[in-house]
Specification:
The chain has about 425 residues and is of the alpha+beta class. The chain has 13 helices and 21 strands. The strands form 6 sheets. A 6-stranded antiparallel beta barrel has the order 13-16-15-14-17-18. Strands 7-2-1-11-20 form a 5-stranded parallel β-sheet, with helices on both faces. A 3-stranded antiparallel β-sheet has the order 3-6-5.
């Protein structure tokens, strides 16, 4: 019987352990925390967005980094397989807006309990509070794992599924990068991703807590467009967040050192500038005896009005019937292209995932095995792969975990 050690009891690690054990391997799962799935517990605001039910080609479009590398993994264990897997684990699921898949109970703990039950059924030996010091190799092959306690554990294969650097409190402290480097692997630069963005504009504080739906956000660096999509945005005390911004962050986080990145917010994406001007004229006609500051109630949320007036430079006490065509053009420009200048991203402790990791050119995409060290496999966020928000990153974890586990267990591999 092949003896496999999995380092990391998160999403990809638990899936890898199940896959390997169900193919007949003897599996030991090592987790440094006091419980399994600590980061999984907080995903999706505690609801756990397990996967996305979109078509495979749509799923691939949502992968930001090293899409081609993931083809084998995502076709070996698809989003449909994920749904079937959890339903077999006694975790019924539902599909919500944007094809996002959640447990019917809305409890991430049910997902973790389902996985823990499957691990037990498969005969996986789980050791908690067991930090690893390094992966040991001999003659270019994995020989075992050295624990921080000094204990040496031998194995035929080792799967590193330790996560990245995001939410360090859950145990994601970059251990896997150290293990990989010691085994001769390159680790690319790591950045926080799917993270809030901090802006230089002081009015962010004024708008804190304001949520805007169905707005369009572009990220621009010089003349290059880095991101363009529609969705929901939330103002924070020092910047912006929400699903739209988290996705935008994955396109800008590694570009900030190359020069200023500006966010351009279209508050009325359904209207052209001409249509918007016509709409403003109608509103002004109804409020012709009012001051400018009192004529935007139908167009904008109350809290946003003062900020927009300031950005336009139109005197707020000016009578609406005295607002000129040129001033209206300025107003439509601001509404269609409110500019926010990125100062920095939130840190790893606020980031949903890490961008960067073990260089995929050194990993076999068909097996997740190292091209440098035989018997060493990688799965999940430790790899230099990431996707947009919406269940796609967890699907990457399930798929790479499954492929790494089943490949490690395969006879003669």
């Amino acid at each position: 019987m092949k003896k496999i050690i999995v380092i990391g009891g998160g999403a990809s690690g638990m899936m890898a352990a199940v896959a390997a054990a169900e193919q007949g391997a003897g599996v030991l799962l090592l987790e440094k925390n006091e419980k399994l799935g600590k980061k999984l517990y907080i995903t999706g605001k505690g609801r756990c967005n397990i996967t996305n039910a979109c078509e495979p080609e749509e799923l691939f479009k949502k992968i930001v980094t090293n899409r081609r590398f993931l083809y084998s993994a995502l076709y070996s264990f698809t989003n449909s397989d994920t749904v079937r897997f959890f339903e077999e684990c006694g975790v019924p699921v539902k599909v919500e807006r944007g094809e996002r898949v959640f447990p019917v109970s809305d409890k991430s703990s049910d997902v973790i309990n389902g996985l823990a039950k499957r691990l037990k059924q498969a005969g996986v030996d789980v050791r908690l509070r067991t930090p690893v010091n390094k992966v040991c190799t001999k003659d270019g092959e994995v020989a075992g794992v050295l624990l921080q306690s000094g204990e040496m554990l031998s194995c035929d294969a080792c799967i590193v599924a330790t996560g990245g650097l995001s939410y360090a409190s859950t145990g994601s402290t970059g251990d896997g990068y150290t293990f990989a480097k010691l085994c001769g692997h390159t680790v690319t630069a790591c950045y926080p991703s799917l993270v809030a963005l901090k802006i230089t504009e002081p009015f962010a504080k004024e708008l804190e807590g304001l949520s805007l739906k169905n707005v369009r956000l572009r990220a621009i660096q010089g003349k290059k467009e880095l991101y363009n999509d529609m969705g929901e945005l939330l103002f924070t005390a020092d910047g912006v967040s929400g699903p739209l911004v988290l996705s935008a962050s994955s396109a800008v986080t590694d570009r900030l050192s190359d020069g200023e990145v500006v966010l351009e917010l279209d508050l009325k994406p359904a209207l052209s500038k001409e249509e918007l001007d016509a709409r403003i004229l109608r509103d002004f006609e109804e409020a012709k005896n009012k001051q400018f500051r009192n004529a935007l109630d139908k167009l904008l949320p109350q809290r946003l009005i003062r900020v927009i007036i300031t950005l336009c430079g139109i005197p707020e006490e000016k009578q609406v019937n005295a607002v000129t065509k040129k001033e209206r053009a300025i107003l439509t420009d601001v509404l269609k292209g409110m500019r926010l200048h990125i100062k920095e991203t939130g840190g790893f402790n606020e980031a949903v995932i890490t961008r960067g990791g073990v260089a995929v050119r050194e990993v076999n995409p068909s097996t997740m095995q190292s091209k440098i060290t035989k018997g060493l496999y990688f799965a999940g966020e430790v790899l230099d792969v990431d996707a947009l928000t919406g269940g796609y990153n967890l699907q990457i974890a399930w798929s790479t975990g499954y492929l790494a586990g089943s490949s490690a267990a395969a006879k003669g591999d």
